[in-house]
């Protein structure tokens, strides 16, 4: 395979692989790709009152990662490994490892300090079969452990395994077609040490549910499969991904069923005019999740996302790129269990201005954000009190976070001390212009990374 394409993956460093589509491009334009490896360590802090109810008031994070890519005569390999430690105080609400991913939740009303460890390993290879074909595999494994010792002590452990075989076909007219089929298994298990009045709340959707004893252990498992298709050339790329999900939770995976599906699609086009690349990208995503107990539907949610992006990439000069990203979300959530029927609709729009500079050994990426959301539902603000069947205060605070008019500013500063050693500082500031229930209007994030390429 000797197709002269610009790889979607490689610049200074290979990022973590997201899809088998990326693995399918490993062998493209080998004349400009070299073997690379990098190792890095980082530490960061995040604090402020503008946050969802499950987030920490003050959070510390530290981690390490290593990545590599190697090219042989017929085969290319890439891999990465990382570990992250997080500690945060005043954390409560959702006990789940990724709050909001599933349409059900276990909620605690008492805040405390949580510890979280995340380990991730990814690998991929692609091998040529003649002039036109290449085949390979992408695999990833992620493990997460979280624990909290105060009030309602609990722990959670989860594994996320993804396997994705990939096939690449290269056409004579400088186009490539990448096809992959993905299989994903995700498991989580929670152990809760509750006693007396401090009981966990089983959320069946929109924070409706009940305080329940005997939830420990509470297992969750999801099996997902689907396919990715990518048609690529230097001027035009078109991608499609469809995933079907089937989840089970509670009582040895027999109490709840969680079916769902996701559709993703994008189109990206590039034009070279006067030593400048003009890049247009349109992305669309549609998602649906349901929660069932036996044959009864308890709740469901539907989400749509539309993203429009334009970027001008300059081939010379201090300014490397300028762009704007417009993003819109719409979610509809319904709770269907008798005698309570509630519907919530949430809309959010954001505009992000992006620019990138290069001053010799110094790179600077900056973005500025303006966003606002709206929501409407049958619940009234004066009903926001914790009750036996509804955690209204937690629900309203999360909606306040989602829909508050807000601005943001920040970016990444990269300094290459030598050809191998680099230092990277990321900082971001969020500011909500109007809130009603959150403990503050600001959120600050800062991370320092030191890396070495070899």
In short:
The protein has 454 residues and is mainly beta. It has 2 helices and 20 strands.
Notable features of this structure?
18-stranded antiparallel β-barrel, disordered N terminus, 454 residues, single chain, mainly beta, 20 strands
What does this structure look like?
Residues 1-18 and 380-385 have low confidence and may be disordered. Helices cover 4% and strands 65% of the residues. With 454 residues, the protein is mainly beta. It has helices at 20-23, 392-403; strands at residues 36-47, 58-71, 75-94, 105-129, 133-148, 154-170, 176-192, 201-203, 209-211, 218-232, 236-249, 256-272, 276-293, 296-314, 319-335, 342-359, 362-377, 406-416, 421-432, 442-453.
Please describe the biggest sheet, giving its number of strands, its sense, and whether it closes into a barrel.
18 strands, antiparallel, barrel
Secondary-structure class:
mainly beta
Q: Average pLDDT value?
A: 89
Quaternary structure: single chain
Strand content: over 45%
Describe the global form.
globular
Give the helices and strands as they follow along the chain.
HEEEEEEEEEEEEEEEEEHEEE
CA-based gyration radius: 23 Å
In which range does the helix fraction lie?
Answer: under 10%
């Amino acid at each position: 395979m000797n197709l002269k394409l610009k790889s979607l993956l490689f610049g200074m460093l290979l990022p973590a692989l997201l899809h088998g589509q990326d693995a399918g491009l490993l062998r493209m334009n080998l004349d400009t790709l070299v073997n690379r490896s990098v190792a890095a360590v980082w530490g960061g802090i995040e604090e402020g009152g503008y946050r969802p109810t499950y987030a920490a008031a003050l959070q510390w994070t530290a981690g390490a990662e290593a990545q590599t890519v190697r090219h042989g005569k017929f085969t290319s390999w890439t891999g990465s490994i990382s570990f992250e430690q997080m500690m945060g105080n005043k954390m409560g609400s959702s006990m789940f490892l990724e709050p909001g991913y599933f349409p059900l939740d276990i909620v605690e009303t008492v805040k405390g300090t949580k510890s979280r460890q995340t380990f991730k390993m990814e690998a991929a290879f692609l091998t040529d079969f003649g002039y036109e074909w290449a085949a390979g595999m992408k695999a990833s494994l992620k493990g997460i452990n979280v624990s909290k010792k105060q009030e309602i002590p609990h722990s959670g452990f989860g594994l996320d395994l993804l396997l994705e075989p990939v096939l690449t076909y290269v056409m004579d007219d400088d186009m490539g077609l990448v096809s992959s089929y993905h299989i994903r298994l995700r498991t989580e298990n929670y152990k809760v040490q509750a006693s007396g009045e401090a009981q966990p709340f089983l959320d069946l959707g929109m924070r409706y549910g009940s305080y329940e004893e005997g939830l420990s252990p509470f297992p969750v498992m999801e099996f997902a499969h689907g396919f990715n298709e990518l048609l690529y050339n230097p001027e035009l790329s078109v991608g499609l991904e469809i995933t079907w999900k089937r989840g089970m939770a509670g009582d040895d995976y027999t109490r709840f069923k969680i079916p769902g599906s996701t559709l993703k699609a994008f189109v990206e086009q590039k034009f070279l005019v006067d030593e400048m690349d003009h890049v247009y990208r349109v992305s669309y995503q549609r998602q649906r999740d349901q929660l069932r107990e036996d044959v009864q539907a308890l709740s469901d949610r539907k989400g749509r996302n539309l993203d429009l992006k334009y970027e001008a990439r300059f081939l010379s000069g201090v300014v490397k790129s300028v762009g704007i990203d417009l993003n819109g979300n719409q979610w509809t959530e319904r709770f269907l269990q008798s005698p309570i029927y509630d519907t919530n609709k949430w809309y959010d729009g954001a505009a992000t201005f992006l620019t990138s500079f290069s001053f010799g050994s110094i790179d600077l990426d900056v973005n500025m954000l303006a966003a606002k959301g709206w929501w409407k539902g049958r619940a009234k603000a004066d009903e926001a009190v914790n009750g036996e069947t509804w955690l209204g205060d937690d629900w309203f605070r999360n909606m306040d976070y989602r829909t508050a008019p807000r601005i943001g500013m920040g970016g990444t500063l990269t300094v290459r001390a030598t050809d191998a050693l680099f230092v990277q500082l990321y900082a971001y500031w969020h500011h909500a212009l109007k809130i009603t229930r959150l403990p503050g209007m600001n959120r600050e994030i800062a991370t320092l990374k030191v890396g070495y390429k070899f």
